[in-house]
Amino acid sequence: MRHTSSTLGLLARALAMAVAVMADTTYRSRPDLSPPHLNITIPCDSRCASGYLFVSPFTTYGEPDDRVSYQVAPYIIDSAGDLVWSGFGYFAGWTGNLQAARYQGQDVLFSFEGLHNGNHGHGHGHHTLLDSHYSVVKVLRAGGHHVSDKHEFAITDAATALFQIYEPVQRDLSAWGGDDAQTWIVDARFQELDIATGEVVFEWSSLDHVSPDESALALPRGLAGTGRSSATAWDYFHINSVIKGADGHYLLSARHASTVFKINGTDGSVIWRLGGNHSDFTLGDGVRFGFQHHARYVDESPGSEVVSLFDNSVYGSESAGDGNEVRVNPYSRGKYIRLDHTAKTATLVRALEPPAVAVPGLAQGDPPILTKSQGSLQTLPDGAGDFVNWGSEGQITEYDAAGTPVFHAFLGRGFLRDKLQNYRAFRFNWTGYSPEEPAVFAEQSSSSSSSSGEGTVRLFVSWNGDTVAKSWRFSWAEETAVVDAAGTAKTTTVWKDKVVARRGFETSTRIYRPEEVRIVSAKAEALDADGRVLGVSAAVAVQAALTRTINSKGDVDVVGQERLGFAGEL
Ligand SMILES: *[C@@H]1O[C@H](CO)[C@@H](O)[C@H](O)[C@H]1NC(C)=O
Ligand SMILES: *[C@@H]1O[C@H](CO)[C@@H](O)[C@H](O)[C@H]1NC(C)=O
Ligand SMILES: *[C@@H]1O[C@H](CO)[C@@H](O)[C@H](O)[C@H]1NC(C)=O
Ligand SMILES: *[C@@H]1O[C@H](CO)[C@@H](O)[C@H](O)[C@H]1NC(C)=O
């Protein structure tokens, strides 16, 4: 009880700090992790849907070497920007399109992992499925002799997977303005593959069914490759999403044709086109889209489907100002489009406008967000609203059912504020059981910091990927010097413990003891809602406190130093 007033003071300070640096998620117990620092400009309240954020930000910029590099990996993050799971070390290389899904009756995570060719916007690698213990369920590569591309990965109810192949081939391209040396074109392919057996159920080739006439990026301009080598093959079509409808046909988004196609699941023929120069539908006000991503069915009612997509409306390099941009609309939006097969019309059901965030340097009339590449639009379940990912612009927005932004964040802050990109982002529920040992860090504060002359030990614990633990039982060994009856000095050791409610990724607490009591080691046990032990850390030695500073940019990450936040000390 002697400590009540100082405890309250600390609590007040910790709360003030937690508000000021809410998204600076740095963890004393995991100095090896360097997750993204969200800059949340519209914080979630009760209007946000439940569930976590699934993102895989990456950067093409090098960082100054006095800072810990942001770790490119798939991440699960909570709505306050606190880490839930860092996939760093679980996935390697460039990763994207992290999602939660169901496979064979179990919850799984999947992500693309491999290499990313930023210049040509494709990837080479494979897809990996993890279970809720983050163990590998399956590694899937394309069937035949192909290499999987990064864009689509979707698991169907029939336990098959849909994904793409980016395949350079040689053709006579003179009909499209190619000279003798311009003979390389990308055959955009997709496969449907049985996940368990790897057997190819269906395969489609763009060159078999769609002429290069339909491209929005003509070969002579060279914007989608010059066609002079396999590495610079003309990417005339560029599939970036494929989904299978209940009727067994496929819905496909071809970015470089600015068209959404329905593809016959039996013979691969085109059933209809939406958008582009060969649209089977007359486009109503606001429907026209370009260089779009992530086409999905929202309503599959035959004859009056609703399709959702992310309308980039721009094609160009992510590093602005190369003078080669192609624009369709002044800014990017999420769109819902209803098709009427009788009237042959496409009408805009609703559009999700970029939120009016304060973008420094934004001139009057400038587009609020113009996403030059990537992007996604997720329809949240139960009419809860929408989740938009602004791709190359490194921002995410959640909208309520009325279309009002209820959450907005830049995926990076400080130095990385405008340098992170993210291919797709989602909100999903997820229950994860960490396969790791809980990580504990224990630090002895200098006794002079305590006015009452007591020693203070700070304990921190985290458990990467766990979503189940509700509280932590910290325990620590106290050594007291005693003189026994025979006059011999010796020490006695007693273990003590205390239960602390879980606070996000990292939970911490302070222990106050008189100077003659030394706390020599500490550990922590994760407890579920019923107090059952879920996991136990190793016992760690208590370290002396070292000076920690935050860098002048205020965006932390200095080597060996603390990224503040989520102290949650009680
Ligand atoms: C459609 O036609 C216009 C004008 O000829 C052209 O600029 C554009 O690239 C074509 N393709 C698409 C898919 O917009
Ligand atoms: C799909 O192709 C099959 C085989 O050619 C054909 O019988 C069927 O009518 C086609 N379906 C549609 C909707 O075009
Ligand atoms: C966060 O975003 C706001 C709005 O764009 C910006 O003014 C601010 O500088 C950003 N903060 C950091 C630390 O990047
Ligand atoms: C999470 O689960 C709740 C309860 O089942 C549901 O209402 C909500 O829509 C789910 N959230 C997401 C993002 O799927």
TrEMBL record:
InterPro entries: Arylsulfate_ST, ASST-like. Keywords: Signal. Residues 1-23 form the signal peptide. Coiled coil: none annotated. PANTHER family: ASST-DOMAIN-CONTAINING PROTEIN (PTHR35340:SF9), PQQ ENZYME REPEAT PROTEIN-RELATED (PTHR35340). This is Arylsulfotransferase.
